[in-house]
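Look over this record as teaching material.
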Amino acid sequence: MDDKIDALLHMQLVDLARLFTKRGKLEVEAGFHAHYDETALQMTVSQFWWDYPLRDKTAGMKSDVYLRCLGSAWFTGKVAVTDYLHYCSSVKFPKLANSLFALCEDMRLERICRSQRPGMGAVFAHRHHILGGYFQHKLRTHVSKGELADALLLIVYGWFTGKSWQGESFSALGSELTGRLGGLYAMLEQVEEASYTAQVAALCKDILETLSPWLERDAVSSYFWTQQGSGIADPLPADYKGELKRAKRLANDDVLPDQEGEHQLPGQERMPTWHRESSDRSPGLLRFELERGARTAAQGSAPREGDAADQALAITQGRSQRAQRTGAAAGRRQGPSVPAAAGHGEGEVAAYATATWLLPERPTAAQEDGFRRLSERAAPLAKPLQRAIRRTLEQRRIAPRGDRLFGRLDKRLTRAITQEMPRLFYKKRAPVPQLDAAFALLVDCSASMYDKMDETKLGLVLFHETLQNLRIPHEIVGFWEDADRVTEQEAPNLFQVAVDFGSCLAVGSGAALMQLEPQQDNRDGFAIREMMKRLLRRTERQRILLVFSDGEPSAANYNDVGILDTHEAVLQARRMGVEVISVFLANGTVHETQRNAMRNMYGRSSIVVPNVEGLHEQLVPILRKLLLKSIQS
């Protein structure tokens, strides 16, 4: 499924799922059916939507999240689901029993979702439009094959959603099925009005007992399905009104001793928030939500008796001001911080990844000779580009500043009379234009680059020679992960600095590029974040990060979330003002799945190079565009 992952859509689904469930570490994955597992903190969206256009796929997956994370996570009873699944294993038609219950429970949850969030109605309408067209075709197939159980299930879905499938293609057998369901519509209406999952289960049992005598075979397809572990232990009623809120777990496991024998004055009451961090156990007005402390039997929402002293706090309402933090507390809040878009990245995926920076060694004679040969190959492309940039700078420097339609008023005002359309303004002489940019080139040194590294070095030499002659600070770094040293506590990532900002303009500094060689794995998201930190220390107006890679990231415990983590790292860098551009190096033919994968990670700022032999030629227009954009005057 990697080729079908849409990183941005996936992160939207994760954000929605965590918002509705109030579970900060809930993960969203793809599966055969939509499912919510409270114990595993996992929500599954149906793969049914993958092959639809983006608009339909987005609506379908969001509707799955609504049903599972706003519906099942709060209103589906886990005990009732377990009991009903045990009942399914003992009946004559277990597949029909399971599917019927899943359908009825979804219809009940949809009504609850529409009541809680009326704005979800449009998404559910889109969902039923897609499913209606799909099920209409399937219904004709089931009726023609005599698969009555499947046809009956789809007719029930049509009744719930208001679909009318009785047309010319609907045979007499289908009409007979609809007629047999006529006596069950009263029970289906009760399903929508049910307050708890247990009531839906009881009604489904009654429906099955009514239909079983004239059914010969079980259902063949599983359009709807209920899995073990669905729901929660204490579900809310369908007519629940109020905020959906979960109690926070305490950081410790303290329990207050029994204090019934303690002396207590008449009219006094104990606060239900006594804990080891509060030595004063005097009664108080406010009730707090604590993350630390001791558990008590008191109900957090229990009412308390009013007191005359409560009015003492009335005069302070509406006059609170921001605290003036000083010292260490203020220091901790300084510095830019961009939260993760979907909760991956630095918080989860890269929690145990470490960075080790390796300084370049003194180039050998063979490396200097190899760099000289690459420099000679890159010169025919680098020198014309350098001349074009210098010519642009000179044109901007000597550009005329007078005879303009706006600006400062010129002293020669007689032209207002002598000329039909006079240009009476001039522009003050601007400073000499200069290139105000800093470049960082991040090179994938994974094992898969073994057949592309030589041509990649030619492209790096082209960049280095051009930027060095134009006196633009830049840095070239290769990255990889040492798979042999990866443990459950540490994932060492190595960064080989070939050219750094301090020596990039020195003569002969590019020979260290020849030290970049294919190594092992690549953790792209972590590498982008590390390079972003180095670029943010630069004072230049424009900061550009180019990533040379030959495919998707691959590292320990990183394959499933690598695309999402890289996409999040790219978004984070762009929010901080770093422009991230990917250069994808392919071997001849570029598959559409590869294009989609790079687009998912880098968006539209992804350049695909089909043949690595032509890398240096394709880098010229990229570098020209970036340099012209960075000219400041």
